[in-house]
Amino acid sequence: MAWQADAPLQGLTTLGVPARAQWLCSIGQEDELPVALQQADHKDLSVTVLGGGSNMLLLADVPGLVLHMQLMGIRHRQDPADPDAVLVSAAAGENWHELVAYCLQNGWYGLENLALIPGSVGAAPVQNIGAYGVELSDRLLSVRYFDTQTVQVTELDSDACQFAYRDSIFKQALKNTAIILSCTFRLSRTPRTVVTYPALLQYPGAGADMTPQRVFDAVCAIRRSKLPDPAVIGNAGSFFRNPIVSADVHAGLQLRWPDMPAFATHTSDVKIAAAWLIDQAGWKGVRRGAVGVHDRQALVLVNHGGGTGQQILALATEIADSVQQMFGVRLQPEVCIVPAPAGGL
Where in the cell is it found (predicted)? Predict the structure, then answer.
């Protein structure tokens, strides 16, 4: 558990913007975490947690200690309450897509729609990742985390995680105190595919009889056709969340833009497609020097090479201002911006 001074972070985030950590420490075992935190406290250092780096925009060098969570390991056990269910526990540092593929290969079904989402297992519950009709909260049983205030390991069940659209207790009440160690999922040995999302329904051979493997393959193919590979061009996936508005606001917008894509929520509110808003405002494919908007998916901001975090933030703010002026709806970032800009985006 060595500490590295003035450590480069550019290669640890998928946007690939230049930034350095005052101190960097990789955590490979759970018992290393409290030791590192105690040392940081003695040195009066702030602590920033970094996982797969696929959902983070760094605006500047990071003071204090950056903890790079690299906890690994996957375990499974029978659900004692359901002979058809298997409980799969994965450490926070495991790659999310590789976990999805591993479960599928072992005949543990339920995560297929979440294939190819970049990042680590530990980041998944923070924003309640979701795609193609399934959200993490639909499959999650519990989250284990280290509480930096009580200095204890705590486990929350799914209900206690207070999941909402791209939100959880880990972005709210526990934002600065919980460091996720592992997640446990309740999966099924019997295939029960979810093929309700429009893009999946339109995929060749789609239907209620699609196998989990076919859903997995379709999701991967659809994502690859729309989203850039971070290994080829720097990006953090969807930069903005889909805005949720009241039914009255949506009705007013629909009168002016009848083709506006929208989706029902668990309440009377309506979720609007942020990509459509950005595209209608004329941003798809726009470039501002080294940074820009992807030419196939307007939700994705890209670093063509040599771009900085401040340049990406300036572009994101310009887009949000433009969409608000045109539609009266303010876009909010899905990525974690470090440090958080004063007053928001």
Answer: Cytoplasm
